[in-house]
Amino acid sequence: MKIITYLHFPDGQAEAALNHYKEITGGEIVMMSRMGEGPMEVPANLKDRIMHARLQVGETILYLSDTFEENKIQKGNNLALSLHVETPAEVDALFARLSEGGKVVMPPNDAFWGSRFSMLEDKFGVNWMVSCELKK
Asked: Between the CA of residue 119 and those of 18, 54, 102, 109, what are the distances in Å?
């Protein structure tokens, strides 16, 4: 099991932040996809924004993305912990336990990018994502 920090950015700042952190840390961008590349309908002004990016710095991973709902993200609440597990059953079980007394943002589902994925805010106000890669 891994816990990975996930940063969300308003105003299309994720790509600038990603490149800034890459330069500072000497890390490697190992994955980046744009909002317009997925099957969802996305407004034209959001198509080039980052849907998901992964910066690898040694053994450490940092995830970054822009946001769809910019008014919900502000400095201080733009952080989530991303919990990665091995099986869909673990996703479902951890999601159920973490969301008790909290707020479900997205229940577990099989996402188009090949992961079982969920989002929640726990009873302490901490934002979580719980996911696993689906076996092909």
From this structure: 22, 18, 11, 10
CATH topology of domain 2-133: 2,3-Dihydroxybiphenyl 1,2-Dioxygenase; domain 1 (3.10.180)
pTM for this entry: 0.73
d(CA 28, CA 23): 9
Contact 115, 131 (CB under 8 A): yes
**How far is C-alpha 122 from the geometric centre of its chain's CA atoms?**
16
Helices of type H across 7-124: 14-25, 88-99
Helix H or strand E segment including 57? strand 50-57
- Stated as kind and residue range, the H or E segment containing 54 is strand 50-57
pLDDT digits (tens, 9 = 90+) for 82-123: 998 999 999 999 999 999 999 999 999 999 889 999 999 988
What are the backbone angles phi and psi of residue 129, rounded to the nearest 5°? -125, 135
